[in-house]
Amino acid sequence: MRPRSAPPRRVTIVDVAQHAEVSTTAVSKVLRNAYGTSPAMRAKVRKAVAELGYRPSAAARGMRGQTYTIGVMLPDIRNPFFAEILDGVTEWLSDTEYQILLGPGCNGEAAEARVTETMIDHSMDGVILIAPVSSRSRLQHVASTVPTVVVGRHSHSTTYDSVADDDIAGAALVVDHLADLGHRRIAHIEHLETDPARIAEMPNAIRAEGYRQAMRAHGLADDIDIVSTTYTQQGGYLGAQQLLARPRRPTAIFAGADIVAMGVLEAIAQAGLTVPDDISVAGYDNTTFANFEPISLTSVDQAGREIGRSAARLLLERIAELDKPAAHIRLSPTLVTRRSTAAPPR
Amino acid sequence: MRPRSAPPRRVTIVDVAQHAEVSTTAVSKVLRNAYGTSPAMRAKVRKAVAELGYRPSAAARGMRGQTYTIGVMLPDIRNPFFAEILDGVTEWLSDTEYQILLGPGCNGEAAEARVTETMIDHSMDGVILIAPVSSRSRLQHVASTVPTVVVGRHSHSTTYDSVADDDIAGAALVVDHLADLGHRRIAHIEHLETDPARIAEMPNAIRAEGYRQAMRAHGLADDIDIVSTTYTQQGGYLGAQQLLARPRRPTAIFAGADIVAMGVLEAIAQAGLTVPDDISVAGYDNTTFANFEPISLTSVDQAGREIGRSAARLLLERIAELDKPAAHIRLSPTLVTRRSTAAPPR
DNA sequence: TTGAAAGCGCTAACAC
DNA sequence: GTGTTAGCGCTTTCAA
After folding, report:
1. Domain containing residue A37: CATH number
2. B188, β-bridge pairs
3. CATH number of the domain encompassing residue A88
4. A99 three-class SS
5. B122 with B195, same domain?
6. Contact A69 B292 (CB under 8 A)
7. Which of A165, B49, B110, B254 has the most crowded CB, counting CB atoms within 10 A?
């Protein structure tokens, strides 16, 4: 009745070697498809591995060679857009022998440092950092320790690769769409970026800049109206409240992220207004939420899956060739128009 | 200009020992707060650790002792309820030196096996399996290898601990609420469970059973109406379509999960009906989605955070004492009534 | 209280 | 093409 009397000793490479009547080196080589193994040997080893149910210990492997494990850090597990990226990563890696482990959702530099350290401590073969907020030097440090791909920042690092969408273009898609519908007072809710070093590469800051540029291009420079909050539902709610209280209320709100748009919709409903009759709303990320029929939110599609696939591909390439020059992929977003945007009230 | 010319050698316990002028054994002991270290020695070692920025290698640790890492497996990263549980786990472990790593979202037994194996391969100190679908014997196997807590199954295992909510009571809360409002034709959408071994412990099956019991208790045995699909948005959509096509349409739908309710709402909207005027809808899990003001879905709250905290606590207790008897915690759910439920149309 | 030394499971030189 | 051997960084006996 003792549940775990004897935690049975794990099958090791030595057991496999004995069972197959070869050396441990041979087993190791076969397992890694390394050079210098005869077909006969491979067959013997594979058979023994199967019969004994052997699995290599990633911990032991990590001390000498690879662990065949990729770490993925994502800031907020609740944001469905990140799940999309993750799907792409998973899809790309599913054909390989690499495993994935995720860091727990982390907000802020301290938590990010903790997560990346943990991944390094486990000697993961590479890490994918999704929308990190850490300083550039911190990312540099991580990348100098382990092959790294950064997703969602417009980086120009020579140390790590990056994948992001063209946020300037994405913001322009929204403004163009709203302007074409006849809107002039188009407001934007941004995630405030104070650190000047980060303004150049954080997507939120670039979306705001893209909004400004597009407004100017439409001759709407005087109508530029940005509220600075955070990319959260709460941020959208508070930001929208500010905008709705304006003497000349905007006729359209471009939220920097779908999660922000959720808060915006909530504030609008609470104010007794209707979307899109009284006010149009657009988001960014094209999450499942935006696609939810009763919501039907116009949103910028970043092709998260493709971003994830690209990130995984770049990482494997870097693992294979540590010195290869850094690649920086910019994917073009598209606009998915839905019922939350329409012509402004007259 | 070479980006990663020399990946600098990691600081090891030997470096710390030399710097502090003590033995590696001493360093190891201090790091683990082990018995037999003088205050003076501790001070010296701590100082050296800080000065050198030393971090223990989890990989190396894993070969002999603990890795101070907990693995959490969750089936679907998109379901916000799981994020809630995760928050609870994170909260409880934040006071400890344990780190968390998550498995990638997995659906199906094969994927679950892969994830748990990966965690074991990395010699994690313990694993928390959230709503696993694997067979009982498979869970037993995992638990006999590594301390395990299973979340969301009504298990009676002697090998692993478990935490779940009382799904019979949760279903009753919904039926009671709807019956009190005057509903009789209350339908239920369940996630189909065919494996007889699993019916007794899977929450979806127990919710369906709770629905049946509660309906009978209200004298509504003849109105029992269950559609079997899956716990997905698509499942809810298709299930609702079936129900709406009934000759005597139900006046209320109890979806087995909020994600299912999303699909239900979509089908209802598409059918040109209104919630709650034409039909009431209730969900299960009280996700952020249910709380979203424009939706305002009545839902059963499982106290996910508390579930996570309990799971983490049980796991640490088991890690400390491997032979302790298995504990099975059942938390009582509560009902959060919102605008999606009202009296039936007359 | 402290430290020397053996090994955890694996990979990588380097023989043969 | 194959096997022997020396570690990787850490924990853990076991002596001192």
Report:
1. 1.10.260.40
2. B226, B254
3. 3.40.50.2300
4. strand
5. no
6. no
7. B254
Q: A-chain residues within 8 Å CB-CB of B136?
A: none
For B91, residues 6+ apart whose C-beta sits below 8 A from its C-beta are: B305, B308, B309, B312
Say whether residue B262 is in contact with chain A using an 8 A CB cutoff. yes
Look at A9 and A291; give whichever has higher pLDDT: A291
Cβ pair B285, B67 in contact under 8 A: no
Q: Rounded to an integer, what distance in angstroms lies between the CA atom of residue B298 and that of residue B258?
A: 9
Would you give the distance in Å from CA A59 to the centre of its chain?
A: 27
Model pTM above 0.90: yes
Counting one residue from A and one from B, how many pairs have CB atoms under 8 Å apart? 164
User: What residue type is B20 in one-letter code?
Assistant: A
Q: Chain B partners of A123 at a C-beta cutoff of 8 Å?
A: 57-59
> How does strand B298-301 pair with strand B334-336?
antiparallel
> Over the stretch A46-68, which tens digit does the pLDDT of each residue have?
999 999 999 999 999 999 989 99
Rounded Cα gap, residues A289 and B317, in angstroms? 39
Give the separation between CA A222 and CA A346, rounded to whole angstroms: 20
Residue A61 lies in a domain: no
- The secondary structure element, H or E, covering residue A338 is none
Measure in Å the smallest separation between the Cα of A334 and chain B Cα atoms.
23
A100 close to B (CB below 8 A) = yes
Residue A296 covered by a domain: yes
| Same domain, residue pair B246 and B309 | no
> Which of A4, A117, A265 shows the shortest C-beta gap to B55?
A117
Q: What gap in Å lies between CA A318 and CA A173, rounded to an integer?
A: 33
For residue B6, being part of any structural domain is answered with no
Nucleotide nearest to B17 (CA to C1'): C3
CA of A64 to C1' of C14 (A): 17
**Residue bearing tokens 């504990």:** B327
Closest nt by CA–C1' to A11: C9
Peptide bond into B80 cis (omega under 30): no
Whether the CB-CB separation of A107 and A130 falls below 8 Å is answered with: no
All residues at 6 or more sequence positions from A23 whose CB lies less than 8 Å from its CB, including other chains: A17
User: Residue B109 has which token pair?
Assistant: 């037994």
Does B114 map to a domain? yes
Q: In terms of residue numbers, what domain contains B188?
A: 167-301
* Length A14 CA → C7 C1' (Å): 14
**Using CB atoms and an 8 Å cut-off, which of residues 167-206 of chain B contact chain A?**
none
| Rounded percentage of chain A residues whose pLDDT exceeds 70 | 98
For B286-330, how does the pLDDT look when each residue is reduced to its tens digit (9 = 90+)?
988 899 888 999 999 999 999 999 999 999 999 999 999 999 999
